[in-house]
Amino acid sequence: MINVPQPPTPALGTSFLGVADTGTFPPDSQIAAGPNNIVVSTNGAVHILDKRGNVLDQQSLVDFFSPLGPEHSFVVDPGVVYDPYLNRFWLMAVSGNTASLSNILIGLSDTQDATGGWHRWELDATLNNATATQNWCDYPKLGFDAQAIYVTCNMLQTNTTTNSHVLQYSKVRVMTKDQFVNNTAISWWDFWDLKEGGNTGTATAVSLQPAQMFGAAVSDGEFLVDARGGGGTGDTLDVWRVTNAAECCDGDNVGPNLANQGQWIGNYGPSDGARQPGSTIQIDNVDDRLLYAFWKNGRLSTGQTVACPAPSSTNACGGFTELDVSGYPTISTLRNWAASAGGQDVYFPAMSVNGADDRTMVFTVSDSSLIPSAAYWGIPSIDDCPGIPNCADANTTSLQYGLNDGYVRLSNGIDGINRWGDYSGVSPDPNGEGIWIAGEFAAAPQNTWGVQAGLTYQTSPPPANDPFSGSQLISGTSVSAGGTNRYATWEVGEPGASSTTHSVWYRWTAPSSGPVTMNTCSSSFDTVLAVYTGLAVNSLTQVASDDDACNPGSQVTFNAVAGTTYRISIRGFGGGEGTFTLDLKMDDVTAPKVISTVPKATAKGVAPGANITATFSEDMDASTIDTTTFKLFKAGTTNLIPAVVTYDAMAKKAILNPDANLKRGTRYKAAVTTGAKDVAGNQLDQDQDPSNGLQQKGWSFTIKN
Fold first, then answer.
1. Pairing relation of β-strands 643-648 and 697-703?
2. pLDDT tens readout for residues 1-19
3. Stretch 431-438: mean pLDDT, rounded?
């Protein structure tokens, strides 16, 4: 049993509610992470969220598959994964619970963006290849390798007399991915009536887990695994391997190859339920079936809810087994332990792996004083723990504490079966660093559940301006905006993007026409700077771009058009990440003008002691505002009226104060000449028409009698 912390718990970069109680139970939560968003599924809902927790789309599981027809009104047992070979999401469930209607439902996203549309298929689960049966699919699981997907089912038959469901056998359905990608008719190959020990066994293999194969070649095939004992006491795992998957679907009678090899790991057995405060009814832990499987670098990992080793055998522990299958059928056990959270019950563990081969296990934890809560801990790569077979961090970290006094939701009203959920969810982020988790907790109000999503091994979610739709607004003619593309992602249709792109977006509307320069010269990494116009990321028109004008930073200059909104992309060359400052400077070529005067033009009855003022359209160079550029005459003469001229920079206003009161009843003329300049050196041009040359501002007024 693991009870001594060794490596530090992985950081929790962000955490938010994935799905609230939908009224359907158990929730059976799952999660999958793509480059830009995550999908959280339960028996009652499918939610698509961005990586900061904002809900982008939500619908019921039934509604998600409703395009397949109204007969799919009962849809359960969802499974969602992100396929790194296709850069798309798979979502699977089953509909119906009788042999007359039992379909495997499969959805495939059109792109790596889960909000960008899906295709859906319904496959008859009752068929064994082409042979009809009276059996229906329960507890479906979805795995993938480099060329195919694999759906496993416990095939049941309904006894209408006793209204019970009787296990007949397990089945594996093999389907190549290209059929789904090309949206053709779907063919498959079924293996069924699988036995523990392969052909030499007699006991039915139960609850096969198909692996998510990370970084596999076609020649690696697909690994599957089940725990012998049918959910009861056992000591051996069956490790299955499918090769030559393409034979599933070419129309001949030759199917893929299926091999079996057992691996002894030591005794295991089911726990007797999980304790909780506020109720004597324990939470049902189901049995010790395997709950997840993944393969990476020749190592197959799996786990289950098991009874803890003595003397705590009444408690539930999170089992974890890692096998070396690189020399299959030769197998060796690398790690095998049952994890307890300080004597608390740990149940429904799920685990996945990142690019560094570090893992996160998520689970529910509770005891007589702890409300059922979502929690996790980290498990470093075995390569980082030489000589430490039980290397793990057993310091439980809360993902979401329970919010009420306990949880009781009795299945079909039968006392003693307090359904919680059959599994938790976990998914690696495609960036190779983060691992996303989805854990169930007891929510408020009483006897409701919630699914909390979180990000581990990554200190923060993507920046807010990661998506094109979240472009950060900058404004003005002189801007300096700091930013980062750390953990940023890429989008389908994004110009210049690839799977290693980490791009962020800004938007700027030109306040006037003229040359503008943008640069990231002070960046900490090799940037690529590009400027576009357009309203959608997949339909942009490039205005300017640069890589190394100020190595490692970038700089572009172009002529902006007043009122045009420009989209600015900053990404790292070759997948680089870091911090930067986006500096924008617009060359001011707009001439200033006088926008108001006191007195107004043609005004009469002006006080003899009044000052004369002119307010400008922009900041002026104070050194150019004096008696040579702001003048006052007696109308009809060229005689200057002696005065003092000052400039109020805050108000952008020039003030002419005559040395003496002006004569009553006399008309005067004021003028601001073209010698007045703005701070950029542009001379005053009152009519703003270059074809007329520079025009001064002149106006007259009359002093009262």
1. unpaired
2. 343 334 457 889 999 999 9
3. 95
Q: How far is the C-alpha of 149 from the C-alpha of 141, rounded, in Å?
A: 10
Please state, in angstroms and rounded to a whole number, the distance separating the CA atoms of residues 63 and 40. 15
Class (C level, CATH) for 594-703: mainly beta
Angle (nearest 5°) at CA 49 between 43 and 50: 160
Q: Which helix (H) or strand (E) is 408 found in, with range?
A: none
How crowded is residue 640: how many other Cβ atoms within 10 Å of its Cβ?
12
Tokens representing 673 are: 């000449």
Q: Could you tell me the pTM of the whole model?
A: 0.83
SS3 breakdown of the chain: % helix, strand, coil, rounded to 5? 5, 50, 45
Nearest to 284 by CA among 412, 413, 449, 419: 419
pLDDT at 4: 38
Q: Where are the domains of the chain?
A: 12-456, 468-586, 594-703
Look up residue 404 and give its two tokens.
């009420």
**Residue 215 CA to chain centroid, in angstroms?**
21
Note the pLDDT tens digit of each residue in 535-578: 999 999 999 999 989 989 999 999 999 999 999 999 999 889 99
H/E run at residue 588? none
- The closest of 560, 586, 589 to 683, measured between CA atoms, is 589
Task: Give, in words, the CATH class of 12-456.
Answer: mainly beta
Q: CA 581, CA 572: separation in Å to the nearest integer? A: 13
Cis check for the bond before 386: say yes or no (omega within 30 of 0). Answer: no
Neighbours of 704 (CB within 10 A): 12
Report, at the CATH architecture level, how domain 468-586 is classified.
Sandwich (2.60)
Q: Is the dihedral of CA 600, 601, 605, 608 positive or negative?
A: positive
pLDDT mean over 299-304: 98
pLDDT tier at 343, thresholds 50, 70, 90: confident
As a whole number of Å, the end-to-end CA separation of the chain is: 105
pLDDT digits (tens, 9 = 90+) for 22-37: 999 899 999 999 988 9
CA distance 140 to 154: 7
pLDDT computed for residue 1 by the predictor: 37
Q: How far is CA 626 from CA 64, 90, 646, 673, in A?
A: 73, 74, 7, 10
